[in-house]
Design a protein that fits this description.
Length: 71
């Protein structure tokens, strides 16, 4: 089990992943348009600035590549 400090440290990562998933589902799904894809790239860029772990940074890189390719 993790200590309370570990859980607090994980919270920003968990929130970033949740926002990334929500953004990808809403704007980069099967039904998408240029406006949504552009909005998604903005959210991804904002999340990249705060990425603290390699795991999240890698997820954001993959999301950015998928989103940019869809444009």
């Amino acid at each position: 089990s993790t200590g309370e400090g570990d859980e607090v440290a994980m919270e920003p990562e968990t929130r970033a992943i949740a926002l990334l998933r929500r953004t990808m589902s809403e704007h980069v799904g099967v039904i998408r348009d240029r406006t949504g894809l552009t909005r998604a790239l903005g959210v991804i860029a904002m999340l990249e600035e705060g990425a603290r772990t390699t795991r999240v940074a890698n997820m954001l890189t993959a999301a950015k590549l998928v989103t940019a390719a869809a444009l």
